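Structure Section — protein described below
Tokens — whole-number codes for backbone shape
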Amino acid sequence: MPEFINVIGKQQHDTHHYSVDVHILTVLQEAMNNPEYKNLSNSDKTCLKFACLLHDIAKQEGITDDLHPEASALFARDIMRKYNFPYE
């Protein structure tokens, strides 16, 4: 997913120890290691993986950004459309 390049090495604000890319991949790893993950359908697993990968995709570097959840959701929506994900 080429859009991920926007977060590689991007530093978060002072309360986070990891860059945005490492944070996102850690969230993905934790989700997939959750014991409930194996009970999900393949479709739900795909949705969860994309949700993890995109949840902070529009986070600003080095600041506390209260608007990043909404900006990330809008960016994620556009990416999901690009990859032809169903609306629901």
Notes: DSSP finds three helices and no strands in the chain.
